[in-house]
Design brief:
Elements: H1 4-7, H2 11-27, H3 35-42, H4 46-52, H5 56-80, H6 86-98, H7 105-114, H8 132-143, H9 151-174, H10 179-195, H11 206-209
Length: 211
């Protein structure tokens, strides 16, 4: 996590650093990035960088988490616009993403998350039961008549939906799909989730699986 010295910077200064980190990690794999390159772009000393972050990996994890939260919030916003059609809201978000200018910061953040070669993009940041994000998510589940009563399961489902979105976008990018092809593939995934792929197959009792 970034140090308090970074969090106490002005919004403008933090945004400037965020943009530099995003562009740097977007342009090349984290394994090839050097601290010297970042501090040069930030026009600060190497020592100043370490007042903000523990190391390069810390800065990388921070920027991944930042944009993961932004994307979570935007997915929720799109779902809220179609409360009674949960997956339609997500589809509209995917369509919007597919039509972004590739020079936009938001598109770069999507590419950064989809092209991450390590586990950083899949690490789940903690979410308290009373956090605004969880509260919004709970309201959506209730409005969509999705019955999940346990907090841990609700949060797990939130990250599952995030992974659904990112996997769809990864396919879109990797296969150079059109928006229509992205939507077709996404609808396949929704069908598998909502209707299952083999409803007549009996799954072994959970207790037996754990033995």
């Amino acid at each position: 996590m970034p140090h308090d010295t970074f969090l106490n910077l002005s919004i403008e200064k933090r945004q400037s650093i965020d943009t530099i980190l995003l562009n740097t990690f977007y342009d090349q794999p984290v394994s090839q990035v050097k601290v010297a390159e970042i501090v040069s772009k930030m026009k600060m000393s190497r020592g100043a960088f370490y007042k903000y972050f523990d190391d390069l990996e810390d800065a990388y994890t921070y920027i991944i988490n930042k944009y993961a939260v932004v994307i979570h919030q935007d997915i929720i916003k799109y779902i809220q616009d179609d409360r009674n059609q949960f997956f339609i809201g997500i589809e509209k978000y995917l369509v919007w993403c597919s039509q972004l200018d590739h020079n936009e910061e938001y598109w770069k953040s999507l590419r950064l998350l989809t092209e991450s070669n390590d586990l950083s993009a899949y690490k789940r940041f903690p979410l308290a039961s009373d956090s605004p994000l969880v509260t919004q998510w709970t309201d959506i589940l209730i409005a969509s008549q999705i019955i999940i009563e346990d907090h841990d399961e609700s949060v797990s489902f939130l990250f599952f939906i995030m992974e659904l979105v990112m996997n769809s976008l990864t396919g879109f990018i990797a296969n150079d799909w059109t928006t229509e092809e992205l939507v077709t593939d996404y609808r396949f995934r929704v069908k598998w989730i909502t209707h299952g792929v083999a409803p007549n197959i009996t799954i072994a009792n959970e207790s037996n699986l754990l033995q």
